[in-house]
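Researcher: We plan to redesign the surface later, but first we want a full-length starting point. Tokens attached.
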């Protein structure tokens, strides 16, 4: 569907949201470009500004309902990537058949209607299940930086932080070093935060 103008997009989102039942989910996906992120960010702000706090909650990728920290940087934008197998004629046209996977970038927002764990509980420790606790965990917004003996991960966390976390091999296993060597872009970070830099990027 091709929409012209922000008003048309806003009207479509409102109509789709009105069709969602309580507990239902609305998923919005755009291209993983700065423009696509701006569309997603506008939808996010639409919900925050125009709906009551307990009428919705963000399931992914946001770990909070506050201002998006990436929207203010002017350089970075929230996006992820997914490997997609090419069709045979694409493989033929683009060369070696061994290179049969393309990585497509996208921005997305998953919104559930109704009160969420972050509205029900004041902190992660109060949530009774792992699924509800995960709503409080930071999410990796960039591929991890792996160095000798330590890993740096750039994560979005509550209340509205985009920060760089450091994980060292010298720390106990509970700090997540082994997990940090296998973690992928877009994963949740369930281990204690050791903040290396309050602002993940120096702009």
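Model: Full-length starting sequence:
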């Amino acid at each position: 569907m091709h929409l012209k103008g922000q008003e048309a997009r806003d009207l479509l989102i409102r109509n789709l949201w009105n069709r969602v039942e309580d507990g239902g989910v609305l998923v919005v996906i755009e291209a993983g470009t700065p423009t696509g992120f701006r569309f997603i960010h506008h939808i996010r702000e639409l919900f925050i500004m125009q709906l009551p706090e307990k009428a919705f909650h963000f399931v992914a990728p946001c770990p909070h309902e506050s201002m998006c920290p990436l929207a203010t940087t002017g350089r970075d934008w929230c996006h992820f990537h997914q490997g997609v197998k090419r069709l045979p004629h694409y493989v033929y046209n683009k060369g070696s058949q061994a290179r049969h996977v393309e990585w497509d970038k996208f921005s997305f927002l998953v919104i559930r209607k109704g009160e969420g764990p972050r509205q029900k509980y004041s902190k992660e420790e109060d949530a009774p299940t792992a699924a509800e606790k995960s709503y409080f965990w930071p999410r990796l917004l960039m591929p991890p930086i792996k160095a000798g003996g330590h890993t740096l991960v750039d994560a979005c966390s509550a209340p509205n932080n985009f920060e760089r976390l450091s994980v060292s091999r010298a720390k106990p296993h509970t700090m997540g070093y082994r997990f940090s060597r296998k973690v992928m872009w877009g994963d949740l970070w369930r281990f204690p935060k050791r903040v290396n830099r309050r602002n993940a990027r120096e702009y």
